Structures are given as structure tokens and as C-alpha cells.
Amino acid sequence: MAQLFSPLDGPLLDPDDRRAEVTKRMARDLRLLDAAGSEREAIVALMHMGYSAFDVARLADDARRLCNVAAVH
pTM, whole model, 2 decimals? Predict the structure, then answer.
């Protein structure tokens, strides 16, 4: 039987790198939408931007924090 997929040698992106990348994108989007003011506002905005519910659940607070820190600097 032919093999449909070739095996990968390792992960495409380190989980910590992916987490940092997604958090930065979320923070940027929250800043663009001016939606970092409340947790509810941020969650709704991120879900509408197409982020997965899993990523929003675990990274929304970090993204809000990053967005607010960037706004202070």
C-alpha cells in the first residue's frame, strides 16, 4: 500500500514559539480593534477574527496584557 503522507522529522514549530507568535498576533489585533479594554470584549473580538476557541481560551489574557504593556510604552 502506498504511503499517503511522508513522516515529519519533528514539529513544524516549537510549541513555545507558536504560543508567543499567536499571542503577539492577538495583541496586535486587539490593539487595531481597540478591544483590549475588557476580557469579554477581547474574547468576542478574537473569536470574530478567526482564532480558535482553544487559543482564545488560553491566550486572550496574555494578549490583553501584552497589548496594554505596548500601549504604555
Answer: 0.77
